[in-house]
Design goal:
Helix content is 68%, strand content 0%. The protein has five helices and no strands.
Length: 142
């Protein structure tokens, strides 16, 4: 299939700089995850101490890196057959879940004194950025 072929599933109606992927939305959600992680560190550090603040940073970082892995795998093609695009999204989600499990296992093995509630709070807070990102319309900087 060439880019010049016009099919219902690869029209350029929603194109962003010649691609179907809205990069501003993806980048905005990743930035939102970073900001939420940083916003969680301060209250967690005040309430539970700096070890808990560090644990929440680790949890947020796991969520952010997992999202970056998903984006890298899922958006390899700007457009194409729907079944190929769905397989890429499934691959991205599988890689993200595998990374998350391995990261938490590594944290459990190598950093046993981590404050677990703060770690999971940081992860859940950063992961929730996706749901907040659905409510926000991120615009491309021009």
């Amino acid at each position: 299939m060439t880019r010049s072929e016009r099919h219902p599933y690869n029209r350029r109606i929603f194109a962003w700089r010649n691609k179907m992927v809205n990069k501003a939305q993806i980048q905005g959600i990743i930035r939102l995850k970073v900001w939420i992680t940083l916003a969680v560190v301060v209250p967690v550090s005040i309430v539970w101490g700096w070890q808990a603040g560090f644990a929440s940073v680790i949890g947020g970082t796991v969520a952010i890196l997992g999202s970056l892995i998903y984006v890298r795998a899922a958006y390899q093609l700007p457009y194409g057959p729907p079944e190929v695009l769905m397989k890429l999204h499934y691959l991205g989600e599988a890689l993200k879940m595998a990374f998350t499990l391995v990261a938490f296992a590594a944290i459990f093995v190598f950093h046993r004194k981590v404050v677990w509630p703060a770690l999971f709070f940081g992860y859940i807070a950063a992961a929730s950025a996706f749901w907040f990102g659905l409510l926000i319309k991120f615009k491309d900087k021009k």
